[in-house]
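Example record

One chain of 79 residues, shown exactly as stored in the release files.
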Amino acid sequence: MSGNRVKETTTTTGTGDLTLAGAVTDYITFNTSEGTNKRFPYTIIDTTNNVWETGFAYLSGTTTLVIKLLITLAREQRR
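Predicted structure tokens for this chain:
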């Protein structure tokens, strides 16, 4: 099952594993939804730079997101 109402924040930049900082109000964490060591689809949205990515990842610990397969990396084109 992929989680409904999962939304977390992070301040991690660059490449590599992400440290998740907790659920946004009214949402749950990936750990609550999926647990550790189970692959699931994800989307990351960088609203500052208008960039997003999708793929498959897993949690190696309760707050460490490990990207396994990057499917899409895109930048919004502003006119």
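Notes: The radius of gyration is 12 Å.
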